[in-house]
Write a structure and sequence with these properties.
Layout: H1 2-46, H2 53-84, E1 92-96, H3 97-114, E2 118-123, E3 128-132, H4 133-149, E4 156-163, E5 167-174, H5 195-198, H6 208-218, E6 222-228, E7 232-240
Parallel strand pairs: 2-4
Antiparallel strand pairs: 1-3, 4-5, 5-7, 6-7
Helix pairs in contact: 1-2, 2-6, 3-4, 4-6
Bound molecules: adenosine-5'-diphosphate (ADP).
Amino acid sequence: KGAVLVFHDITELKRVEQMRKDFVANVSHELKTPITSIRGFAETLLDGAMEDTELSKQFLTIILSESERLQALVYDLLELSRLEKDELKLTQKRIEIHEWIQGIITIAEQQAVKKDIEFSYTIDEQISLNGDADRLKQVLLNLLYNAINYTAEKGKVGLVIEETKDMILFKVRDTGLGIPESAKNRIFERFYRVDRARSRNTGGTGLGLAIVKHIVEAHNGEITVDSKLDEGSTFIVKLPKHL
Ligand code: ADP
């Protein structure tokens, strides 16, 4: 019996070690890509491209957007490492949904309109809950950004906030790409991306859902996804009314 236990521990140890190695490899890769590009374009500019004003503008635009990518990545990495070190101290207070949701809806509408996506919402305005207003805002915004990102132009994105006896539910639905069955659990892992979506180059960091899951779990809640390839996805966040 003892031998089985030891064996089990070693496999677990190996698994954790492998995950750590994968993470470091992923971070390095993700950082390297924008840095290589920034450096390359800066060198080309210094090598003479600067004389061509149009070309210079084009290159500088790329340098700027790659810098923004780097910045987002570093920000998300710091955020994730804070969350994983359990430094996440929730600032808990009573959240009145009808007040809290206004800013979120404005942002979602602005993003949706850019892609000609129809954004609609059904929100029970009576609802209030205990939680960290800023963190939960981050959760909802991340899910809404993804829904808009992974849905083609003229698609639909919807938000529902409702309550059951002891839970508050956030549902973010889209008519987008959908997620293959085999990827449904993995999308919450750091840096995991479904290839099809990734090739669309949405500019995300691959860390959004990992961060979302941490925040939801810190509220003793859970997040799940229902999805059908090429039809769309619904992310459901369940939060207990009382922490
Ligand atoms: P990213 O920055 O790549 O969006 P996330 O952690 O937010 O990173 O999401 C991980 C992956 O999950 C995405 O790359 C995408 O493949 C998939 N995904 C997330 N949300 C959706 C969605 N609403 N529809 C389809 N695929 C999604």
